[in-house]
Design goal:
The complex is a heterodimer of chains A (460) and B (437). Chain A is mainly α and 460 residues long. Chain A contains 16 helices and two strands. Classes of the chains: A mainly alpha (460), B mainly alpha (437).
């Protein structure tokens, strides 16, 4: 809330700077505005930028560092025996202090020292916010005054402003790259911590997965087994079923839409098919878990098959429907891109339409179709909600689609939701799985995009 | 197989025309079959789509109505007196549970025994006393009178009344026993059971009791999340698109950025959740379960979509516009901000709306940052703990109560309505405002 107020004040101040700068620019020409190097608003913008941006960055840095610094100071004020607590207990204590200070209810009974620390925390917080206000205001006003003093008719305000704009544009593009870097580093960093606890080969080649580990030191429990092969196998099984559904349906739809369908039919059917990709995956999950899975189980009973109520089949079938548009849309595009001359040549030799499609169009479009299938596969592997709701949690190493299997994404979700301590191998395992998932999908995507691009270049 | 024989036939040296003639029937049949496969594929996919939507609507539309039971409630003045006076505090503290129970006992005087009585009390929702309390607080003149009041029925009675419980099944397999069924039948016969529009579903937060659960908390959570997402991703996305399309030199670095953005668009959404957990929660210490963090994660996820759409929109602006602006002396940046960008804006907005629609339906990354908690209060700001619509769907779908299945489907209907509106808006922007060159 307070942050919002400071932001608003800063914006108002910047706008004031804009007006002041513009007026100053007009005033300093003594009535002859054409003497100015740039249009008057640029002088205003120049002042506004210097007023707003440095102060904004100061605000951001302050906001990021404040909690950490305050809790450091508070910890230093605690009695020495509490300071010597192990890290986890200390974090718990700090959590209590912060909650107390913000007026929340703390579940445990609170010792007087903690209460004292909370009061100290609150007083530090309020003085910090006053300090922050002063700092930001000082920076903003200093920027405003300094920028305003530079205004003169020969000052190249537009060039300066444009430099700022370019800097902002480049920063924005860099953010897109930073996201990838952030993903790679956060996954890599946590995975490395995981591989310090569990060996790399056990993770990749072990065939037993039971990540439950002892919660207390004295508890008798297994140390957890982190062999991810059953999970990889489950992911592969569900994705394979999904592709078995999506590839034929998607491909035949694409062929029909691009080769046979009349333009009005195409105009209706294509967007309708694409709706399938726009429906939230949680909706598919609901449908898979509450309609498809019971239906399959009952059908199984009729046929004398044992189909568990959470089966790879149910999840795979529904996921297959979800990725139909990924196959059909891109395949449709590439089939359309096959030059008409190839088709006409085939017709001229007396081939029927289906023969032309099978022997001329499809082979020509094959790379693009393969690309679309790879993209669909990457979607299937990374899909989460359908499998979380319909595929189950048991890490069975099986190729039987009627059994419950688990996938990489399901395990990430189960390991990271609910109570967690962040240093255990259990939660870190989720990051190792995430890294695997990221790398596999990345490879599929890169190959798919390369293939499609090469194909496009061939006929352009 | 048929193709191979056909090739051999054509290659035969003599009587080619006759061989072709003979094979024609088979080849035409193959052609028709092939065509049929295509129709079947499209029909199958669309059939599934309608099956899915129909199923959701069929199971969800009943949640828009809620069964109510009318009871004669006597507000005796003695019940509202504390320390000799009737004031707001004493009204607030009155025993409304007792009032409801007493009225139920009066309606069914023949019920005796603790277990049966408890079953009888369970006909009415556990939220009913609070309904009574607000009613009396709003209108203290009710005290001392007897009123016929419609109270919310419990979820089991609701399901029974909507015909979602198979009464022919053996008694042990039902959530509701014969005794309750006969009570409800009696009430129905005396006109004391009705279905009213379920306003609570749209005005309440989550609850453990299906009849008291609503989607407003999730809708507000989604709203705050989407606002954060839009504020962060749209300006950054537009600026990145402008730089890459209008200013970036063609070199290795921009090529890497380009490949990177295309790949980012295809990264599984759950990986963004892991990023949010590791960076926003653990490194920066931002609050768990907050729409602020959810919005930040979804903004990173939507960014590639907005950049790609933005670049396509900029590409569609003809170069003559730029050349004309440059010719009259505008700088390169003036050309872009004053001429190219306004013309490309509708296309960029379309992309942004579609990206936001995707973000609105996203669940997995939000599970990672703790937006999956059970939260009763409707959030009042982006830092309050909250959940969002798709996560609410996920939470309810996991609940064992029969009545939650119907509410899940109804929540999906609400979610789909929002998505359809956003997509229609995108279509509208595309067709009405976008310029064709």
């Amino acid at each position: 809330m307070q942050f919002a107020i400071v932001m608003l004040a800063l914006l108002t101040l910047s706008y004031g700077g804009f007006l002041l700068g513009r007026r100053q620019a007009i005033a300093c020409t003594a009535g002859n505005v054409r003497d100015l190097h740039s249009l008057a608003p640029y002088y205003g913008l120049y002042v506004a930028i210097w007023c707003g941006i440095p102060a904004f960055f100061a605000l951001m840095i302050w906001g990021a560092l404040e909690p950490a610094i305050i809790s450091k100071i508070v910890v230093a004020s605690l009695p020495t025996d509490q300071q010597a607590l192990p890290v986890e207990r200390l974090n718990l204590l700090i959590n209590d202090i912060v909650n107390l200070a913000s007026g929340d209810i703390v579940g445990r009974s609170v010792s007087p020292e903690t209460k004292l620390a909370a009061d100290y925390y609150r007083s530090l917080q309020s003085s910090a916010s006053i300090l922050m206000g002063i700092l930001v205001a000082a920076l903003a006003i200093a920027g405003l005054v300094l920028a305003k003093r530079r205004i003169s008719p020969s000052f190249r305000a537009r060039n300066m402003v444009e430099k700022w704009i370019m800097a902002m544009l480049i920063t924005a593009s860099a953010i897109a790259v930073l996201v990838t870097v952030g993903i790679v580093f956060s996954l890599l960093f946590e995975s490395l911590r995981f591989f310090q606890k569990v060996s790399f080969t056990e993770f990749l080649f072990g065939i037993e997965w039971s990540p439950q580990i002892a919660l207390r030191d004295d508890q008798v429990a297994s140390d957890g087994a982190f062999g991810a092969v059953p999970i990889f196998a489950g992911t592969a099984l569900v994705s394979a079923i999904a592709l078995l559904v999506a590839v034929p349906i998607g491909l035949f739809s694409a062929i029909y839409l691009s080769e046979y369908a009349s333009p009005p039919f195409r105009a209706i059917a294509k967007p309708l098919l694409e709706i399938l990709a726009g429906i939230p995956t949680v909706v598919y999950g609901f449908f898979a878990a509450l309609t498809v899975a019971p239906f399959l189980r009952d059908t199984g009973v009729e046929l004398g098959l044992v189909i568990s109520s959470e089966s790879a089949l149910a999840a795979g079938l529904v996921m297959g429907v979800m990725i139909i548009p990924f196959v059909s849309s891109l395949s449709d595009d590439v089939i359309n891109a096959v030059p008409g001359a190839l088709r006409e040549g085939s017709y001229a030799l007396g081939a029927t339409q289906s023969e032309t499609i099978k022997k001329v169009v499809l082979p020509a479009a094959l790379p693009g179709i393969v690309g679309s299938i790879l993209l669909a596969a990457s979607r299937a592997i990374g899909e989460t909600m359908i499998v979380v709701m319909a595929a189950g949690l048991a890490a069975n190493l099986t190729a039987n689609p009627f059994q419950a299997v688990t996938t990489v994404t399901v395990q990430i979700v189960t390991l990271l939701t609910g109570d967690q301590e962040f240093d255990s191998a259990k939660t870190l395992a989720a990051f190792a799985l995430g890294l695997t998932l990221f790398l596999v999908t990345l490879c599929l995507n890169v190959v798919a995009l390369k293939v499609v691009q090469k194909y496009r270049a061939k006929y352009d | 197989m048929t193709d191979n024989t056909h090739v051999r036939n054509v290659a035969a040296p003599r009587d080619t025309a006759g061989a072709v003639e003979k094979s024609l029937k088979r080849r035409y049949a193959a052609d028709r079959r092939f065509r049929l496969y295509g129709v079947t594929a499209i029909g199958g996919a669309l059939g599934f789509l309608f099956l899915l939507l129909g199923n959701i609507f069929y199971s969800g539309h009943t949640a828009l109505w809620q069964t109510k039971i009318s009871l004669d409630i006597t507000f005796e003045s003695v019940d509202f007196i504390r320390d000799g006076v009737v004031d707001e505090a004493s009204i607030a503290k009155a025993n409304y549970h007792g009032l409801v129970r007493k009225s139920l006992r009066d309606t069914f005087p023949e019920v005796s025994g603790r277990r049966d009585k408890r079953r009888l009390y369970a006909l009415i929702s556990s939220g009913a006393p609070i309904e009574l309390q607000t009613m009396v607080l709003d209108e203290p003149s009710l005290i001392g009178t007897t009123q016929k009041i419609w109270l919310t029925a419990s979820d089991d009675v609701d399901m029974l009344n909507k015909g979602r419980i198979d009464v022919t099944a053996p008694e042990t397999e039902r959530r509701i026993q014969d005794m309750e069924i006969s009570w409800v039948r009696d009430l129905k016969a005396s006109g004391a059971v009705k279905k009213a529009f379920n306003t609570r579903f749209f005005t309440a937060g989550d609850s453990r009791d299906p009849e008291q659960a609503g989607v407003l908390g999730a809708i507000m959570g989604s709203l705050f999340t989407m606002i954060v997402t839009l504020i962060l991703s749209f300006p950054v996305g537009v600026m990145a698109a402008v730089y890459l399309e209008e200013f970036a030199p063609k070199n290795k670095i921009t090529e890497i950025i380009e490949i990177n953005i295309n790949n980012l668009a295809a990264v599984p959404s759950i990986v963004f959740g892991l990023l949010g957990l590791a960076v926003f929660l653990n490194f920066f210490g931002l609050p768990r379960s907050a729409p602020l963090v959810g919005g930040m994660v979804l903004a990173l996820m939507t960014l590639p979509t907005i950049i790609i759409a933005g670049r396509a929109a900029l590409k569609a602006v003809p170069p003559s516009i730029r050349e004309a602006a440059l010719a009259v002396g505008a700088s390169k940046i003036q050309t872009v901000t004053d001429h190219v960008l306004p013309l490309a804006m509708p296309g960029m907005l379309t992309g942004a709306i579609i990206g936001m629609a995707q973000a609105l339906g996203e669940t997995a990354p939000l599970l990672m940052i703790g937006m999956v908690a059970f939260i009763v209060d409707v959030p009042g700001g982006p830092t309050d703990p909250a959940t969002v619509l798709p996560v609410q769907v996920f939470l309810w779908a996991d609940s064992p109560e029969r009545a939650f299945a119907e509410r899940t489907a109804a929540a999906i209907m609400v979610l789909l309505t929002f998505l359809i509106c956003m997509n229609l808006l995108a279509q509208l922007v595309r067709h009405k405002i976008e310029r064709k060159w």
